[in-house]
Amino acid sequence: MKSDYEIAQENSMQPINEIAAEMGLPDTMLEPYGHFKAKINISEFDTKKIAASKLILVTAITPTKAGIGKTTTSIGLADGLRKLNKKVVLALREPSLGPCFGMKGGAAGGGYSQVVPMEDINLHFTGDFHAITAANNTLASLLDNFRFFNRGKPDGIKTVLQKRCMDVNDRALRKIVTALDGPNNGIPSETGFVITPASELMAVLCLAEGLEDLRNKIDDMLLGFTFAGQPFTTKDLGVTGAITALLKDALLPNLVQTLEGCPAVVHGGPFANIAHGCNSIMATKTAMQYADYVITEAGFASDLGAEKFFNIKCRKAGLQPAMSVLVATSQALKLSGGASQSTMMLPDMVSLRKGLQNLQKHINILRTFDQHVLVALNKYGFDTDEEISFLRNWCLERDVEFAVNEAFTKGGDGGIEMAEAVLSLCKHPSSQLKYTYELTDDIETKIKKIVTKIYGGSGVVLYKKAQDMIKKIKVLGLEHLPVCMAKTQYSFTDDPLVSGLDGSFNIDVDDLVISKGAGFIVAVCGEMMRMPGLPKIPQANHINVIDGKIIGVS
Predict the structure, then answer these.
(1) Which of 46, 130, 355, 430 could bridge across to 333 with cysteines, CB 3.0–4.6 Å?
(2) How many CA within 13 A on the CB side of residue 286?
(3) Those residues with Cβ within 8 angstroms of residue 397's Cβ, 6 or more apart along the chain or in another chain
(4) pLDDT by residue (tens digit) across 369-397?
(5) What is the H or E stretch that residue 218 is in?
(6) Residue 521's domain is classified under what CATH number?
C-alpha cells in the first residue's frame, strides 16, 4: 500500500469555497487561507439547529505508544456516513508540533482516511498554535515586567503561577531559572515551560463560546499571588485587551476536508493526558449548526478524553451526545492481555482474550455516562478472521454493537459498516447525560469519584502541595469548578507500568493547578509531566523537504 504522504499528494482537493457551500456556509462567513483552508467567521449560534444535530463521540480503549487510530476512525466514519447520503461534518483537534516531530508523527489520519492538506494541518496550519504560544508568552513577559517594577511593594507579585509555553517536546525546559546575570534582567525565578496544548490559554480558547466569552476567561486567569496574599489576575494586570487581540483570529474554527471531500472543522488541540483533550466548543457547535451528524473525538482513552469531554466540555457547552464509538485494535487488546510491543501484532488468542478485560472496562466507563456504545475494530492487515469473528461474537453476547473499520485501506467504503451501525443507534439516542460528580462536590470528592467510578481505583492520596492548594481553592471560592485529571494514558493508575485492571490502587495527586480562566482545576497525578520529552530517535529525523515537497510528517 502507498504511504500516507503518497496518497495525500495524489489526491485532488476541492476548493475550500466548494466545501463550505456543501456545508451551507455563506461566503460572508468564509475567510480563506489559500485555496484549501479557511477560517469560519461565526459570531452567533442557532440553538435549535444545534439541538437537532446528532453529536457522536469517538474515543478508545487504552492505546499503544503508536496510538490506536481514533482520528482515522473518525474520518472513516464521516466519509462512510457521507457515502450513505447523510449531511455530516467532522470536528477534530489540531495536531501539535511536539508529537509530530517526536514519537507519534502526524495526526491527520492515515491511509485513505485523512484530512487534507495533511502537511499544513500537521505543521503551521492557520497559525492558531503560534498565536496561543505568543499570547501565553506575552502574558508571562508582561507579568514579569510588572514584578520588576513593583518589587517589594504590597501589591507586587510574590508567587507566580503563569508559565511560558512552546509547542515543542523539550524536557530541558521543564524546570529552569530565569533572569540571571544582573538585576537589570529581572527577578531571578525558578519556573518552567509547558507544551502549548497544556497551557491554560489553549483550554481558554477551546472552551470559549465567542469573543466576549474569550475576553472574560482571559480576565479571570489567575497569574499569581501578591505579597499581601491577594490573587492576581490578567484583569489586575490590565492587559486582557492585548491578549485577546493576539487570539482574535485563532478563536475562529478552521475548515478543511477529507480525501473524499467531507467538510472537516479542525480547531484547538489540548492533550487529554495533561489537559481536557477536546476540540473547541466553537468548532463543535459550528459543525452541529451545519450538519445532521457531527463526528468528534476526545484524546487517548475513555478514562481521559471521554471523561473530560462529558464532565467538562459537554457540561460547559450544554451538549448532549447521541452515542459513543469505542475504538479498539487487536494489538492494543493483546498488549493489555500480556503480549509485548514486539509480539502484539502476531496471532495470539490467549492475549486477546485476556485483553478483553480492558475493553469491558472502557465500555463500562461510557455506560456510566448513559452512552450507547459501538465498538469499532480499527482493522490492520495482520488481523485474522478468527480474531475478528471472536471479537464480534464477544460484543454481541454482551449486547454491544460491533463494526469493523477498514477506512485506512478502503476510505469511505471501509467505513460503511460503522456508519450503518451509528445510524441504527442514533434512531434512539442516548438519554440525558449523567456526570461523574456534581459541581457542588468539594475538589477532593470530585477526584475520588473520578478515581472510583471511572478508573476503578480504591482512593486518592493528596500530597502536601495538593493539600495546600485545596486550602487556597477554598479561600478563593473555586470549589465549584470541575476537575481536569493530568494522568498517564497507558494505565488506569498513575503508573504507566501498572494496568490497574484489578482495581487495587490509589491515585497520587502531587499538585493542583488552578485554571480559573479555563474554568477547571488540574489534578497532576503521579509523575505526570506537562512538558513531554523526545524519544531517542525522534520523528524529526525522518522529516525533510524533497523537490519542494515536505515528507515524513505522517
Answers:
(1) 355
(2) 33
(3) none
(4) 999 999 999 999 999 999 999 999 999 99
(5) helix 211-220
(6) 3.10.410.10
Q: How many domains is the chain built from? A: 3
Question: Residue 432 has which C-alpha cell?
Answer: 440525558
Residues 6+ apart with CB under 8 A from 17: 27, 30, 32, 38
The helix, strand and coil proportions of the chain, stated in percent and rounded to the nearest 5, come to: 40, 20, 40
Query: Which residues does 490 contact at the CB level (< 8 Å), separation at least 6?
Result: 62, 63, 65, 496
- Write out the residue range of the structural domain in which residue 472 sits: 443-525
Helix extents (H) in 238-337 = 240-247, 281-289, 307-308, 315-317, 330-336
* Per-residue H/E/C for 232-250: EEHHHHCCHHHHHHHHCCC
Residues 150 and 113 in one domain: no
CATH number assigned to the domain comprising residue 397: 3.40.50.300
Same domain, 121 and 136: no
What are the grid coordinates assigned to 177, written together? 531559572
Q: What is the mean pLDDT of the chain?
A: 95
Q: Is residue 239 part of a domain?
A: yes
Same domain, 30 and 168: no
Q: In 2-112, at which residue ranges do the beta strands (DSSP E only) sit?
A: 30-32, 38-40, 54-60, 88-92, 109-110
Residue 379 domain-assigned (yes or no): yes
Single-letter residue type at 60: A
- 456 and 396 within one domain: no
> In this structure, is the dihedral angle defined by the CA atoms of residues 126, 129, 130 and 134, taken in order, positive or negative?
positive
Please write the tens of the pLDDT for every residue from 402-429.
999 999 999 999 999 999 999 999 999 9
Half-sphere exposure of 80 (CA within 13 A, CB side): 26
Q: What are the two backbone dihedrals, phi and then psi, of residue 517, each rounded to the nearest 5 degrees?
A: -65, -45
SS3 assignment, position 118: helix
